[in-house]
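Cross-check.
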Amino acid sequence: MGLWLGIDPGTRRVGVAAGSTDDGIASPLTAVPAGRAAEEIERLAAEYQAEGLVVGWPLNMDDTEGRQGRHARQFAADLARSAGRDVRLWDERLSSFAADQKLAGRLTAGKRKARRDALAAAAMLEDFLLRDGPRAAPTPEAAAAPPQQPDR
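Predicted model, tokenized:
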């Protein structure tokens, strides 16, 4: 099939990873400043000739959508309009936790932060690829908003 970019959107940095549907393996690429994320993702998608983009959708453990989940869903919708590629959403619960586990005891705190976002994107993308995400994941337009959790 093809190559997909995994996107872990944050308010400060956006992690980006690349992976192939052929082998289901994803690798971290970079973390870009949130303010330039759309342009950088589109540039990377063109450079890697990505078939599609999958945006991590951080749902809560009770399947509700909080502020970050709404942000990710809107980010994916905006990206779908501007990128001209297949864009999907994928539940990314615990991807940042998995990245933290991989980085535990390694690097300085600053370097861990920078690397964490790209590793979280890779963890989410690998799950997406291994679970037939290109066929199973919703597009931003088709994703029904789950119940909202009150902002605290």
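The chain is about 40% helix and 20% strand. The beta strands are 3-8, 13-20, 26-33, 52-57, 86-91. Passed to J.P. for a second look.
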